[in-house]
Amino acid sequence: MEKLTLHEDPRSGNCYKIRLTAALLGLPLERVQYDIMKGETRTPDFLAKVNANGRIPVLQIGEQFLPESNAACWYLAEGSSLIPSDRFNRADMLRWMFFEQYNHEPNIATLRFWLLFVGEARLTQFQRDQIMAKRAGGEQALQLMDDHLAAHDWLAGGALSIADVALYAYTHVCEAGGFRLRDYPAICAWLGRIEAQPGYAAMD
Amino acid sequence: MEKLTLHEDPRSGNCYKIRLTAALLGLPLERVQYDIMKGETRTPDFLAKVNANGRIPVLQIGEQFLPESNAACWYLAEGSSLIPSDRFNRADMLRWMFFEQYNHEPNIATLRFWLLFVGEARLTQFQRDQIMAKRAGGEQALQLMDDHLAAHDWLAGGALSIADVALYAYTHVCEAGGFRLRDYPAICAWLGRIEAQPGYAAMD
After folding, report:
1. Is residue A86 within 8 Å of residue A161, measured between CB atoms?
2. Helix B162-171 and helix B185-195, axial crossing angle in degrees, nearest 10
3. Which residues of A touch B4 (CB under 8 A)?
4. CB contact, 8 Å: A176 with chain B?
5. What is the ipTM of this complex?
6. Does B128 touch chain A (CB under 8 A)?
7. Is B70–A94 a contact, with Cβ atoms under 8 angstroms apart?
8. What is the DSSP letter of A106?
9. Contact B40/A at CB under 8 A
């Protein structure tokens, strides 16, 4: 495989997904760090060269740039046991990854970012007005996962996959966003199964 | 392939993505319709059998149920020319599909739903307060697509793929959400290329 470079902010769970996938696969990954709080991913140079969308993570593969965390996990994991070999299970894994970006990340990651990095006192009124809806949406996403994991060890295909990695990233730190993990016992057991995997790497 | 049934509300662009993918591939698809405005996807029966997340579309494959529109498009298109054969291009296609669910759909599809189906007069204050941010987010997503399509005929891999289908669905009806397609000439030309494809099927 060509040289892999992760353009990241190490505080971001989306960036961590890619590091964890690479760690589980034993792939070396160089890291280039940006401070999103200082606008370092919105500079003309970053927009022209790394990602016109002004966001991290971006996985650089040789001279090609791949934005979107879950697409980068897919790239790294193709051909490995982290993607199910059965057609339905492979699509079902993607189902959980799209759920992550639509129902989980915008609620749970955003509340963590607001409360942990921006700070409640510095939130705008527009942000404050969204907290209740994001709290409810995040709890609904966690409950859906908990119900599923009460009957399945893994999210898709009966084995660890990048769907588990994608949803692990912000779930295991959701308490920083004001969610209570002890309300979701099946999630807690699943977090433990992931952390026991050979090659597991913790978030910085 | 096993019998394919689409659980849908025909007004939903997310459901239309799956119909358009099947049409381009010549796959027959039975349709079961629900009225989301009447809560027909939140009944105990729907939650227990079709999708615990209470949402359409769901693609039923024999006796298996697959939620999430983009995962369903992936399932249908596997092994066809609608998914690039090159590893980077395949991940780059998924990049655009995750962008669609994170940056495009929550802004453009939501404003279309609010303005066309709920009606501006019946929006809650909480919804009204979000219109400006969703307008800006949607315009940013369309501009990013327009800039890319000014230099590329298709979103990923140099050919029509399910990334084009996924982003076509709500882009071609974005004016119902108050966006102006004439501001995005490269998008307009790309819409025409998709509509000229053999097998193309229009939204109901």
Report:
1. no
2. 120
3. none
4. no
5. 0.97
6. no
7. yes
8. I
9. no
For chain B, residues classed under CATH 1.20.1050.10 are: 87-195
Contacts of A75 in chain B (CB under 8 A): 87-88, 91
The pLDDT profile of chain B, 204 residues, written as one tens digit per residue, is: 799 999 999 999 999 999 999 999 999 999 999 999 999 999 999 999 999 999 999 999 999 999 999 999 999 999 999 999 999 999 999 999 999 999 999 999 999 999 999 999 999 999 999 999 999 999 999 999 999 999 999 999 999 999 999 999 999 999 999 999 999 999 999 999 999 999 999 998
Whether the CB of B139 is below 8 Å from some CB of chain A: the reply is no
Smallest Cα–Cα separation from B183: which of B147, B134, B131?
A: B147
Nearest CA in chain B to A94: B71
Topology adopted by domain A87-195 = Glutathione S-transferase Yfyf (Class Pi); Chain A, domain 2 (1.20.1050)
Neighbour order of strands in the sheet with B58-61: B30-33, B4-8, B58-61, B64-67
For the domain made up of B4-77, the CATH class stated in words is alpha beta
